[in-house]
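Example record for the data management plan.
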Amino acid sequence: MEAGSEPRLRLVGVDHPDARHLQEAQQAELGELFGFRGFALADPPQFRVPLGAFLVAYTDGEAIACGGICPLEALPRTAEVKRMFTVPAWRRRGIGVRVLRALEAEARALGYRSTALETGTVMHWAVALYSSQGYRQIPLYPPYLPSHHSTCLAKAL
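Corresponding structural encoding:
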């Protein structure tokens, strides 16, 4: 990271243009990895206070990473971490960890007791990131129950 380019995190709507752009980039990458096309954008009300939050990381005015939390109906008092993504050129610089920690802080502030997430079983780098931050594997939760390509992780706050 260059001097003066320390990313700043900003709460935005999940439907903000920068958030949408990052989500579209994430889904394109996942589509390449898993062979699918098209996706539904996250539901804005679920990602807004008092239910959730959505963060975008910026450096020099450029949106470089994002992530959100929303209620996880399958697990009481648990916020689901969703749409975690960092632009490839900015990976391996700790930005994903910063976004994740900020989302956990938002979840605590909203009264959640834990966070949980789903990621692909082949995404070893994602599992390693979450594991390094205290996440542990849990049973699959809906809608991932029938999936052989998903792993679910959770962390007490």
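Summary line stored alongside the record: The beta strands are 8-11, 53-59, 62-71, 78-86, 114-120, 136-138, 150-156.
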